[in-house]
Amino acid sequence: MALADATLVLNRNWIPVNVTSVRHALVLMYQTIARAVDPTDYSTHSFWSWADRSILPGHSYVQTTTFRIRCPDIVVLSAYAQIPAQHVAFSRRNIYRRDNYTCQYCGEQPGVSKLSVDHVMPRSRGGPSTWENCVLACLTCNRRKGARTPREAGLQLRSRPRRPLWHPRLLVGMHQRKESWQHFLLRD
């Protein structure tokens, strides 16, 4: 459904701040809070000037009762200049994302049901629940490690755990990113 497709939201300074639905982007445009960005020449358009543009082959559109409007890939806000904090909340879900659903000891991707969060320095020894001390481990590796450090269990971390650098509001899977966004997004 075209209304549920993703639209990149830029602030007034053309810095990405969010990803929203086409439905919400069209509402922002109609309320003159945002303008559509044409990715071919970066020109901006109001709701009505965007509606007047012809629908290009291969582009999705929304059919209203009286006209068709092309779904915007990118909108720029008119009055928002703040850059959101680059803080990623420490959570189980974000640990899975950071570690790419992969055991940090053996490198296997057994599926969510066979992965758990492991404390590198066990909690029983005072290890904190932080980005730098928690990693994903498959059930086999987690059982093998137990309440020991990786070195004591004969395991080695594939990479040192750290706070993620990605922006929480722009957390979009690679399959959801649009080519027209690449000019505005940092390379992964």
What tags apply to this protein structure?
two-stranded antiparallel ribbon; five-stranded mixed sheet; alpha+beta; 188 residues; 5 helices; DNA Binding (I), subunit A; single chain
What does this structure look like?
There is one protein chain. With 188 residues, the chain is an alpha+beta fold. The chain is built from 5 helices and 9 strands. The protein has 2 domains: 2-84 and 168-181, no CATH class; 92-153, DNA Binding (I), subunit A (Orthogonal Bundle). The strands form 3 sheets. A 5-stranded mixed sheet has the order 2-1-7-3-4. The two termini are 28 Å apart. The model has no long low-confidence stretch (mean pLDDT 87).
Number of strands: 9
Helix/strand order, N-terminal first: EEHEEHEEEHEEHH
Overall helicity: 10-25%
By DSSP (H or I, 4+ residues per run), the number of helices equals: 5
Q: How many individual domains?
A: 2
Percent range for β-strand residues: 15-25%
Q: List the uncertain runs.
A: none
Helix/strand-derived category reads alpha+beta
Gyration radius, rounded: 22 Å
Gross morphology: elongated
Please give the order of strands in the largest beta sheet: 2-1-7-3-4
Largest sheet: 5 strands, mixed
